[in-house]
UniProtKB/TrEMBL annotation:
Residues 142-234, 245-342 form the WSC domain. Belongs to the WSCD family. Pfam families: Sulfotransfer_1 (PF00685), WSC (PF01822). This is WSCD1 protein. SMART domains: WSC. Coiled coil: none annotated. Keywords: Repeat. It comes from Anthoscopus minutus. GO terms for molecular function: sulfotransferase activity. The lineage of its organism: Eukaryota, Metazoa, Chordata, Craniata, Vertebrata. Gene3D superfamilies: P-loop containing nucleotide triphosphate hydrolases.
Length: 577
């Protein structure tokens, strides 16, 4: 009995050792196999996907006909925008411009543009940082520091222009901006906000409370939380005066009672345009109105909207104000001062029950439309994307989650069925495709406010860009017409030509009530900071006849689709060239 027990114990010990050995060998073999597979995947990924395999070949597309987007395999995309451009050639002519084909093709392009958009925004960040590093060492402020003052965002003492730059704000930048607009004081708060005005704040604060470092200038303080670092700008006025623009608005019939229509006035025997503009700028009014030797300052109002100008001959002597038509007509000038009646904005206090999109093809003026909507309604707009450059310029809704419902509407360029049906309603902004394509190409190579170079236009990128993006312009409209629940169609050209009537439609669609004076304020600030800088090429025609033929067919397709949904067709200027 003892021998049998001993043999069993010996066998179990050997078995235990054997099991341990087999388990260790199994784990080692599995680890080696896993490492080998990982290495193989990395090697294959580094080679990339051949261009001819990224998307369906033209022969396959023409053979299959109409393609269901859900049956398309997601392509493996490279880091460039136009991966597989050769594979995106058009199918047969009879199928090429049908709404079904455009919608199918849009699903392929959606992945391309999303990938490019994120690459573009990520590329912009180091570029902006590099520009800032080059700038911050040369910027020196010359104003006189007046001290630290209390700042109430609701009851501001510096009631003039307001600027934001959440990345590159410096003391010099704020001072120069205020001086060019004829303000006497510049105040900085929160390290990134700039306020201008002509009255020094009354409530002083402790110096140590202005402790927020300027976002674009290490070691310098730009106010604090509810605190302003205030500078006097008298030393900058001499240089800034040369750069100020006093814009002639025209000759208009004077209101019946000028003293009631305008809050400030001046009577000067030898009155000049410069004297009147300087006086009104110090009083912080955007309009300088001259009648003979009388100078009046104020805003555009219902009684004096500047919509119906008179013949210039009725106002004689635009250079010599004293000889202007004495009684019935007056000369009107735009001072450098910003109209601030519509500049205050905020997030919605309660979540919006209606989820509204502001949808457009890129380059169709979406950012400009957001500027108009925000100033008209007083509420921020959101964005499906995050554009750091726009956020840094005051579009605070960029950083808010697009589904928060704290914004009045949400910018989007998406046009898939799922992305469209998420929204309860939408403002669909449409622009001439020729203009849209050029605007988006400019933005791609020079940002929101720049122009692409001759080298960009003459490169292979431009025809490839047109070939891919022209169909997206059409499919974007077609898919919103198909899947959108409640639409307001706004043509960019109509908005530009008839700003207040079209803006009224948009505001009513958003279920917001605004005053006539606020809309006039928006009109007075209509351009914002969205005009492209630099030399614009005159009589520049980047489109070849082949490109025009392609775009014109898309125009006819979209026009027919709009009329089929009982909307007005495209404006006449869209008609094929």
């Amino acid at each position: 009995m003892a021998k049998a027990f001993f043999r069993l114990q010996k066998f179990l010990r050997r078995t235990q050792f054997l099991l341990f050995f087999l388990t260790a060998a199994y784990l080692m073999a599995g680890s080696l196999l896993l490492l080998q597979r990982t290495r193989l995947v990395i090697q294959q990924g580094s080679r990339g996907t051949p261009t001819n395999q990224a998307l369906l070949a033209p022969e396959e597309i023409s053979r299959v006909g109409i393609i269901d987007p859900r049956t398309l395999q997601r392509p493996r995309l490279g880091p460039r925008l136009l991966v597989g451009v050769e594979a995106l050639q058009e199918p047969a002519l009879e199928q090429r411009h049908s709404p079904h084909w455009l919608m199918s093709r849009n699903s392929e392009l959606r992945q391309l543009r999303r990938r490019w958009f994120h690459r573009f925004t990520s590329d912009q960040e180091p570029l902006q940082t590099a520009e800032f590093k080059a700038m911050k060492h040369t910027a020196e402020h010359k104003g006189t520091y007046m001290g630290c003052f209390a700042h109430d965002s609701r009851e501001r003492t510096l009631k003039g222009a307001v600027f934001y730059d959440l990345r590159k704000m410096t003391i010099a930048h704020c001072q120069e901006a205020c001086a060019e607009r004829a303000y006497s004081y510049a105040g900085l708060a929160y390290g990134a906000e700039c306020y201008c005005g002509n009255t020094l704040p009354a409530a002083a604060a402790k110096p140590e409370e202005c402790s927020s470092e300027c976002k674009g200038e290490k070691g310098s303080m730009c106010g604090g939380v509810n605190r302003l670092s205030v500078y006097s700008l008298e030393e900058l006025w001499a240089g800034a005066r040369r750069r100020r623009n006093v814009i002639y608005r025209g000759c208009f019939r004077a209101p019946e009672n000028l003293t009631e229509s305008f809050p400030a006035s001046l009577i000067q025997p030898n009155l000049t345009v410069e004297m009147c503009s300087e006086f009104c700028s110090k009083k912080e009014f955007p309009l300088a109105v001259i009648r003979g030797r009388e100078c009046y300052c104020g805003y555009p109002t219902r009684q004096f909207s500047l919509h119906e100008g008179a013949d210039r001959l009725r106002c004689s002597g635009t250079r010599n104000a004293s000889s202007a038509a004495g009684g019935q007509y007056c000369l009107v000038y735009q001072t450098p001062v910003q109209d601030t009646r519509c500049t205050d904005r905020k997030f919605l206090t309660t979540k919006s029950k209606v989820f509204v999109a502001l949808s457009s093809f890129p380059g169709a003026g979406n950012t400009w439309a957001r500027h108009l909507i925000e100033h008209a309604t007083g509420y921020y707009t959101g964005s499906y994307y995050f554009d750091g450059a726009l956020y840094n310029k005051g579009f605070k809704g960029e950083k808010d989650h697009w589904r928060s419902r704290r914004t009045i509407c949400v910018k989007t360029h998406e046009s898939g069925k799922m992305e469209i049906e998420m929204f309860d309603s939408a403002i669909l902004l449409i622009r001439n495709p020729y203009k849209s394509l050029m605007a988006e190409f400019n933005r791609k190579y020079a940002g929101h406010l720049g122009y692409a170079t001759d080298r960009n236009w003459k490169s292979k990128e431009w025809p490839d860009f047109v070939n891919s993006y022209a169909s997206w312009w059409a499919s974007h409209v077609l898919e919103w017409l198909k899947y959108g629940k409640r639409l307001l169609i706004v043509h960019y050209e109509d908005l530009k030509q008839s700003l207040i009537p079209k803006l009224k439609e948009m505001v009513e669609f958003l279920n917001v009530t605004v005053t006539e004076d606020r809309l006039l304020c928006v009109e007075n600030n209509r351009d914002g900071n969205f005009k492209r800088s630099g030399a614009k090429q005159k009589n520049f025609e980047p489109f070849t006849q082949e490109m025009k033929d392609l775009i014109n067919r898309y125009i006819l397709t979209v026009d027919e689709a709009l009329r089929g949904r009982n909307f007005s067709g495209l404006p006449r200027e869209y008609v094929p060239r």
